[in-house]
TrEMBL record:
InterPro entries: eEF-1beta-like_sf, EF-1_beta_acid_region_euk, EF1B_bsu/dsu, EF1B_bsu/dsu_GNE, Glutathione-S-Trfase_C_sf, Transl_elong_EF1B/ribsomal_bS6, Transl_elong_EF1B_B/D_CS. This is Elongation factor 1-beta. PANTHER family: EF-HAND AND COILED-COIL DOMAIN-CONTAINING FAMILY MEMBER, ELONGATION FACTOR 1-BETA. It comes from Melanocharis versteri. Coiled coil: none annotated. GO terms for cellular component: cytosol; eukaryotic translation elongation factor 1 complex. CDD domains: EF1B (cd00292), GST_C_eEF1b_like (cd10308). It comes from the Eukaryota.
């Protein structure tokens, strides 16, 4: 399992193909799996690998919140297509704050120097913990946007939806889903900051394009 060498053109092509029908490396919300793969890429993928580039730019927006994303970061070879060998080398040398030795010497009689060192490390540990940024509450929302009929220009409809810009709103992947009688609905994903963007606001602004949009429904809503 793996993507191969993600610093090479071949590895990026494997990643692009993998993301052709996926929004994230694992599951339906950003996670530590995305961060592990993102950090293995040397630079943004080229424009012709648009699935990989779309994913790269989306995950880049989580730079300040990456430590708070769900999941446990695993070796790079644990992600990706099963039939591709990982050649990037797994594991990192990074140390977590929780790895700090808080107890110093194991001797029964602790020397003054060891005691002082232990107290300094405790103070450093508490200081780092207190400075960690507050977690921003986010949600991943899957929207169903329905047109009036089978003659509606769905490319224009999607263009209208993506034209909606707001602080705390990031549009993701989309697809057209048949609903019957030749009519297709737009299914589009977005990630929002809960304090800034709500479903009521999205519905109001999307249905404002009344020449194209008949209605909007929330198909899935997941807290991140």
């Amino acid at each position: 399992m793996g993507f191969g060498d993600l610093k090479s053109a071949a590895g990026l092509r494997v990643l692009n193909d993998f993301l052709a029908d996926k929004s994230y490396i694992e599951g339906y919300v950003p996670s530590q799996a995305d961060i592990a793969v993102f950090e293995a890429i040397a630079a943004p993928p080229p424009a012709d690998l648009f699935h990989a580039l779309r994913w790269y730019n989306h995950i880049k927006s989580y730079e300040k919140q990456k430590a708070s994303l769900p999941g446990v970061k695993k070796a790079l070879g644990k992600y990706g297509p099963a039939d591709v060998e990982d050649t990037t080398g797994a594991g990192t040398d990074s140390k977590d704050d929780d790895d700090i030795d808080l107890f110093g010497s194991d001797d029964e009689e602790e020397s003054e120097e060891a005691k002082k060192l232990r107290e300094e490390r405790l103070a450093q540990y508490e200081s780092k913990k207190s400075k960690k940024p507050a977690v921003v509450a986010k949600s991943s929302i899957l929207l169903d946007v329905k047109p009036w009929d089978d003659e509606t220009d769905m490319a224009k409809l999607e263009e209208c939806v993506r034209s909606i810009q707001a602080d705390g709103l990031v549009w993701g992947s989309s697809k057209l889903v048949p609903v019957g009688y030749g009519i297709k609905k737009l299914q589009i994903q977005c990630v929002v900051e809960d304090d800034k963007v709500g479903t009521d606001m999205l519905e109001e602004r999307i249905t404002a394009f009344e020449d194209y949009v008949q209605s909007m429904d929330v198909a899935a809503f997941n807290k991140i």
